[in-house]
Amino acid sequence: GMSEDEVRDKFAPESIVEYRNAVTPLEWSLSEKRSKGVMYIKLICNRDDDERVLGFHILSPNAAEITQAVGLGIRLRARREDFDDLVGIHPSVAELMTTLHMTELPEGAGGCST
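Given the sequence above, the corresponding structure tokens read:
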């Protein structure tokens, strides 16, 4: 997919919508010794093209496997709705792809916020 800079350069700010989540990886939720809230995942979509996915960012365990699957979706022109329709593999970080939340960008912000 595209980087945030590429998205900002190519699309108007009002055309971009982000979906993101920052949580504890499900595989870690039963252990009190693991850090909490260390997983971050984000989809960047084109609002004007049926929320076609433009970019994907992830910081988590098993990120490589999830990135490969999302990359295929992006190459096949997947939309946000396509990811919503997936059945999450439980318990796994990939399951969180089905519970991302829309990020409201503050007025005057660029295409993608950090």
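The two ends are 17 Å apart (CA to CA). Try to locate this feature in the token string yourself.
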